[in-house]
Design brief:
The protein has 6 helices and 10 strands, in the order βββαββαβαααβαβββ. Helices cover 31% and strands 29% of the residues. It has 224 residues and is an alpha/beta fold. Helix 3 (103-114) packs across helix 4 (121-127) and helix 5 (143-155) runs parallel beside helix 6 (173-190). Strands 6-7-8-3-9-10 form a 6-stranded mixed sheet, with helices on both faces. Strands 2-1-4-5 form a 4-stranded antiparallel sheet.
Amino acid sequence: MSAAITARGLEKTYARGAHEIRAVAGIDLDIDEGELCVLLGPSGAGKTTLLHLLGLLDSPTAGHLEVLGVSVTGLSRREATKLRGGRLGFVFQEFCLVPELTARENVALPAMLRGDLRAEPERWLRRVGLGDRLDHTPSQLSGGQMQRVAIARALASEPRLLLADEPTGQLDGETASEVYRLLAELNQSEGLTIIAATHDPLLAEHAPRKLRLEAGVLLPEGAP
C-alpha cells in the first residue's frame, strides 16, 4: 500500500517575543493511502499547525515530509500550490462559502479560478446528499448543509487526500455526527485518505485510527 504521509522529525517553531514556541515537536508519522484518521487533542495542542504542514499550507522548521509520495521539504511556493491544487482537498471549521453564490456555484468556484473545466458540482452535491439544494444560497441552508457544500467543494477537485480542521466545530452534536458519518462513508466508497482534527473525543468513534496530540507531541497510539 502506498503512503499518503511520511513524516520524520517534523517540527514547527514560532517566535513569540523573546520566546520560541514549538507548535509541532519532532513528530514521526506514517499514514497509508485510504486510511481515515482522527487527530485528537485539546485546543492549542498543535492540531491545526500539523494539518497545515501536511497540507502544504505552511513549511516545517525542521524534519522531512513526504505527501503522496512527493518529498515536499524545500518545495517552492509555486510547486507547493500546484501539488495542493491537484491532489489535496481542505475542509475548515468556517464554511467559507460566498454568500451571493448558490451551492452549485460555490462548489464550482475553485476549479473555475484554476481554469479547470472538469468540475462537476452537481455530481458532488448529490454525492453529499444535497441534490435538491443545487440553487440554494448559504442563507437558505442549515449549518450542516453548508458544511456539506464545503465538503463537496473540496471533493470537486478529486483529491487523493482530504484534510479537515475541526469540520464540525460550528455544528450541534447530532449534525456533527452526521458530517463525520459522511466523511467515513466517503473514505469507504471513494478510497479517500482523510485526516480530520477535532477536540471532541465522541466524534472519534467513526475513525478506525486515532492519533492524539498534546503540546505538539504525538502520543503513542493506544495511549489513554
